[in-house]
Amino acid sequence: MAGSTYGKILTMTTWGESHGAGVGVVVDGCPAGLALCEEDVQRYLDRRKPGQSRFTTKRSESDTVEILSGVFEGRTTGTPISMLVWNQDQHSKDYSEIASYYRPGHADYTFDEKYGFRDYRGGGRSSGRETIGRVAAGAIAAKLLESLNIQVKAYTKAIGPVEVAQERFELAECEKNKLYMPDAVAAAEAEQYLERKMAEKDSAGGIVECVIAGLPAGLGEPVFDKFNANLAKAICSIGAVKGFEIGEGFHAAQMAGSENNDAFVMEPDGSVGKATNHAGGILGGMTDGSEVVFRAAFKPTPSIAAEQRTVNKSGEEIGISIKGRHDPIIVPRAVVVVETMAAFAAADMLLGGMTARLDRIQEFYRK
Amino acid sequence: MAGSTYGKILTMTTWGESHGAGVGVVVDGCPAGLALCEEDVQRYLDRRKPGQSRFTTKRSESDTVEILSGVFEGRTTGTPISMLVWNQDQHSKDYSEIASYYRPGHADYTFDEKYGFRDYRGGGRSSGRETIGRVAAGAIAAKLLESLNIQVKAYTKAIGPVEVAQERFELAECEKNKLYMPDAVAAAEAEQYLERKMAEKDSAGGIVECVIAGLPAGLGEPVFDKFNANLAKAICSIGAVKGFEIGEGFHAAQMAGSENNDAFVMEPDGSVGKATNHAGGILGGMTDGSEVVFRAAFKPTPSIAAEQRTVNKSGEEIGISIKGRHDPIIVPRAVVVVETMAAFAAADMLLGGMTARLDRIQEFYRK
Amino acid sequence: MAGSTYGKILTMTTWGESHGAGVGVVVDGCPAGLALCEEDVQRYLDRRKPGQSRFTTKRSESDTVEILSGVFEGRTTGTPISMLVWNQDQHSKDYSEIASYYRPGHADYTFDEKYGFRDYRGGGRSSGRETIGRVAAGAIAAKLLESLNIQVKAYTKAIGPVEVAQERFELAECEKNKLYMPDAVAAAEAEQYLERKMAEKDSAGGIVECVIAGLPAGLGEPVFDKFNANLAKAICSIGAVKGFEIGEGFHAAQMAGSENNDAFVMEPDGSVGKATNHAGGILGGMTDGSEVVFRAAFKPTPSIAAEQRTVNKSGEEIGISIKGRHDPIIVPRAVVVVETMAAFAAADMLLGGMTARLDRIQEFYRK
Amino acid sequence: MAGSTYGKILTMTTWGESHGAGVGVVVDGCPAGLALCEEDVQRYLDRRKPGQSRFTTKRSESDTVEILSGVFEGRTTGTPISMLVWNQDQHSKDYSEIASYYRPGHADYTFDEKYGFRDYRGGGRSSGRETIGRVAAGAIAAKLLESLNIQVKAYTKAIGPVEVAQERFELAECEKNKLYMPDAVAAAEAEQYLERKMAEKDSAGGIVECVIAGLPAGLGEPVFDKFNANLAKAICSIGAVKGFEIGEGFHAAQMAGSENNDAFVMEPDGSVGKATNHAGGILGGMTDGSEVVFRAAFKPTPSIAAEQRTVNKSGEEIGISIKGRHDPIIVPRAVVVVETMAAFAAADMLLGGMTARLDRIQEFYRK
Question: Which of A15, A205, A307, B341 is most buried, taking the most CB atoms under 10 A from its CB?
């Protein structure tokens, strides 16, 4: 059972290990005629690149993408787009000792159980570098959505216990702090919190929020392929995500129906709108024309310098302290991963939404 | 784009509307040789049947399942298992007026936007009756898992603001109260809360928790088909689910790495275990041999008798008050839906897990 | 691994055994708004119904289809269409002795090897009755294609050594003879051939040809999902089909490039056409706007009354003579199966063809 | 709709154009623990490499494969295997004039119709170089099968009208002539035939036959995913294939049931065998333990130097004569493509065959 391909109409197949030759992705099903160059992809990759602040790993990678196929004279051809990033700064020796024991919170043990052995260098396939392929693929999806006036935007909602305050929310602020938080005060507090965790040789988690604006109503399928269900899979497939919620999410469980229901209203332009958006843009698994709003919970980075208890492959209980270059928090770098995975899932469902009505199909083929 | 099929190796395809002839499911990929009769499925369907308490719809349906194929002399044959439940107590007239307006919190508007029109009788395909096919299919998956000593168990974790207290948790208590809560005190409180909501012509939401015990380590795939990602999709595809979390879930976002990491330990029998289970049984997207523990948040029932604002198809803003027979809370009936969907997703990944290692494949085919 | 679902955008999932309660199919992904009633499906099923001539099994089945979901007020709703045909005239006792041995040319042995045992009544899942679900699903696809001015038509090309002569080809003749041959002379000859085979307690095979007219150019994908590759799978998945060819097919292997290439020409209406159609309407795996023409080879019915050698489950070599009601030739009844499977495959690729170009997607969503 | 991925459990996703940076493939779902190095793949690629005889294109490519992921310390890890071959000898200028007209027998026109424009250099995605990814992926599948004692072997059965004679068939002869024919006499005749076609500035087609030996009985699924149906799709997805047949194939249509049925017999070792193999190793869509034997018909190379009629993009009818370096026959180079695609399809179904029986699943997970 494969599992390295995501999507139904628009698909991505990622490959590559942390300390192999490189990492990459093949995007298939991208419509022909989209203007695309490496710079379109690179600016997304740059947002997840390591080494951007003292809160991220010091591994130094330029992460320069090469597009190897599927683009001709500046436009996509409709055939698969293969993209590749070579690995550069691999300190494999840092990892040699990992081969003999199981790091808590990591996939070392489960890889061994599943496959009988593992590429132990830097997490292998479970490394954060696996997300490079996702981000590159999602960058194309984001460009496709933009050509249809659909925008996807993610940001840090919380770092540990420090949350963005709704009354101070300012989206542009994201770009001004290293934590990608749309609230300068919260960002400052969160930085202090992180400093403390780093001093304690510990790590932190957080929450990413994402908004998709401009989607037409009626995307997603009513039963298993609900828009939110496919989004949940896409987002929960990102390493370290432990929770997903849409609209009011877990809070909805405590609300009364009269509070949670969104009244329909007539918009000035004669279209149907909603007075509120507790639903997060989804009714019955299909987009309702409002913004889709969802959140993902990230666990704290499992690699910590503080001593931990574990076992080695000889069956002995031992104490370890993890070396190597690790992010004390992955949330700021994960923002772009959430954003691009959401873009990819949305683009896939947008393409899938074209076959729902016979009258529109007849019109399409009459051309 | 279809969307009525779930699963990769073990699949279910559901069909049927609330007020059509009936509802059903085709299960494909079930291994040959599983003892199966209608009673095995019926006992799960009985748990979701309406009319079991004053908190559920008064629609009266016996929901008797018929197995039409795939079973011969009491055992599954490996070919598709078709199951059918006829609809009986359809008060379609209750719904005739719904055709003209959009109920808040329902899929009326999104169905119209997607398909151009809709079967307006009782929610059509978005009715709770759609889950009958899921439960019937999941019952087979549960039986398959039991034959491998794997148990799936779901219960009500919270009703509105009333939560099960960990110190009073007693699983057997579930069967003793109508809300399926493993805590008698919380159940009593929750009943009072629901009475209040009903008196207010309002409704409530809640949280379902589910535990899968006995899974081998190594199930799920490291990238997109993570065990938790597939589970998230399965659970978020259930109508009214607005959130999904595994292990510590959203709480993990506030924890330090040193708190959230689970130390590996040696078990008395020489196997590797974990001192805690903050991870909810998943590391790197693969099962780690601990219990898989997850939660789903359900929004309050959108159908409420209290007046609400909405619009009709002529573009007028109107006030409505929903008639018909509706559950003030769907959580107690949704417990078995979560349990069976989880069973189905787990069984699918268990079957998918057989091809990971060459040595085991060689052994398999050497027989 | 399932295997009872065909299609990607438009899917069918069939179920049912020869001697179980019934057979059926769930069609998912059918666009909303297609006028559909049971009669639309029934007229296709009537063409494959047994008992229509002395060359078909005497099993008497009315094969009356019921549509259980997915249609509301005479039009498809976009949700799954479940269709069911009850089994009636089951002479299971005819088959009791089959349980103990393996019929040559049948799937008895392979079922036992795969699943460990089998439903031995009348071929179980490998019975010709399995095609009822295909035909019912394909009838819907054919109606969908008709609404886009696309016609699919199959007929008998050869019975045993007797072939339709190109110079006598007259399509309307099909309906006038029991063998569904578009050539009265060949049909008469073929009837004599079949009488001879029946007198010899033997059986015959044949070839079905099918033409799809009116398809737009550009359907099918350039690599694995070529139009002809998907068609090949659809057609070769019909029981008893041993060969598939498109356009000149096997004959093309003997032609020179200069003979086989079709010159492009300008049509009077200014469109691009082809002077000949050796390609059978496919270039590079995509439709070229010409008629798609393909053929399927059917083996002779394996059930024959003449004595044959085989083995029983005790490992003894024995002589058997097959009883029961069997068609000496299945080709005339298979014509509608080929036609509807082709319609289904074509409709699936037609829907899949809507996402190839960004400009057309932009136009679609701008509406 | 994507279409660049083949397989269900074991998948390959190919990418790359004739005159882009390179071509490649990602193989996902390969079990962990298979010994694999680049040489294992290279020896298959060398068999399809251009420039090996006067009957193949003079384009000079070393076609050296690089494995970029999924292998660690000489063994597959269970994660995706990315392989890449850089393009080298690209004479793009040879193709500049192709941009303005449609070559007969090529995909120029259909690409333009589907995507609105095309990468016109050397056939782009429809070039024979697309098969490099297939061969590389299939080489891994072949190695996997070998580790289970399953052998796949293809050879040239016919070149134009010249067929291998059954009485002179000698498999080892394949390696001794440039046409890969297991019959020295036929090979010599075929060479003369090809010389004549080349002198006439024309081209030839042919037939490839393939045998899979050692497959266990019971592979393939009884309905849509029949072993032969999946094989048909895999083989018909190879460019230039116009026909597929298994066992007696089209000849079966002319046989009587008594001739075509294979009697079951007891083998000396107590297993069940067949006296003949007209079925080509498949009964009811499942392998029966005999050799699987199938054939593929290849059309003559459409690129010929002789003048042909066609149209250009301005709608004018013109005469053209194709330049560039083209094979007068592709069959000898296609042999390895058929062999590796068959290996891949077989390996996929072999892995898929592990979940058919509960008793074997229980045994598997009891370990």
Answer: B341
Q: Is A315 left (phi over 0), alpha (psi -120 to 50) or beta?
A: left
Which residue ranges in chain D fall short of pLDDT 70?
Answer: 1, 50-51, 57-60, 89-95, 324-325, 367
Chain B contact for C86 (CB, 8 A cutoff):
no
Residue B355, chain D, CB below 8 Å: the answer is yes
Inter-chain touch C1–D229, beta carbons under 8 Å: no
Neighbours of C43 (CB within 10 A): 11
ipTM above 0.90, yes or no: yes
- Give contacts of D223 with chain C, Cβ < 8 Å: 3-4, 14, 125, 130, 237
How many angstroms away from the CA of A273 is the closest CA of chain B?
9
Residues of chain B in contact with residue D356, where contact means CB-CB under 8 angstroms, are 31-32, 78
D102-152 confidence digits (pLDDT tens): 999 999 999 999 999 888 877 788 888 999 999 999 999 999 999 999 999
* Short-list D275, D240, D241, CA closest to D260: D275
Residue A200, φ and ψ in degrees, nearest 5:
-85, 10
CA distance A197 to A193: 6
Partners of residue D209 on adjacent β-strands: D155, D295
Residues A126-142: what's their mean pLDDT?
Answer: 95
- Write out the two tokens for D56: 């193949």
How confident is the model at residue A57, as a pLDDT?
A: 66
Q: How far is C257 from chain A (nearest CA, A)?
A: 27
CA dihedral over A321, A325, A327, A333, signed as positive or negative: negative
A320 by Cβ neighbours in 10 Å (0-12 / 13-18 / 19+) ranks as middle
Tell me, what CATH number does C231's domain have? 3.60.150.10
Q: For C236-247, what is the mean pLDDT? A: 98
Chain B positions touching C112 (Cβ under 8 A) are none
Q: Sheet containing C5-6: which strands, arranged edge to edge? A: C5-6, C11-16, C22-28, C81-86, C66-67
Residue found by looking up tokens 């959140």 in the block: A295
- The pLDDT value recorded for residue A60 is 67
Q: What does the pLDDT look like over D293-341, one tens digit per residue?
A: 999 999 999 999 999 999 998 999 999 998 766 789 999 999 999 999 9
d(CA C153, CA C149): 13
Indicate the pLDDT class of residue B80, thresholds 50, 70 and 90: very high
Mean pLDDT of the C13-30 span: 95
Q: Is C52 on the interface with B (CB under 8 A)?
A: no
CB contacts of A113 in chain B (<8 Å) are: 216-218, 286, 288-289
**What integer pLDDT is reported at residue B9 of this predicted model?**
97
Spatial contact of C132 and C340, defined as CB atoms under 8 Å apart: no
Q: What is the 3-state secondary structure (H, E, C) of chain C?
A: CCCCEECCCCEEEEEECCCCCEEEEEEECCCECCECCHHHHHHHHHHHCCCCCCCCCCCCCCCCCEECCCEECCEECCCCEEEEEECCCCCHHHHHHHHHECCCCCCHHHHHHHHCCCCCHHHHHHCHHHHHHHHHHHHHHHHHHHCCCCEEEEEEEEECCEECCHHHCCHHHHHHCCCCCCCHHHHHHHHHHHHHHHHCCCCECEEEEEEEECCCCCCCCCCCCCHHHHHHHHHHCCCCEEEEEECCHHHHHHCEHHHHCCCEEECCCCCEEECCCCCCCEECCEECCCCEEEEEEECCCCCCCCCEEEEECCCCEEEECCCCCCCCCCHHHHHHHHHHHHHHHHHHHHHHHHHCEHHHHHHHHHC
Inter-chain CB proximity D362 and B144 less than 8 Å? no
Q: Which domain holds residue A109?
A: 5-366
Q: What is the pLDDT of residue C127?
A: 86
- Test the A interface: residue of C358, C359, C360 with most A CBs within 10 Å: C358
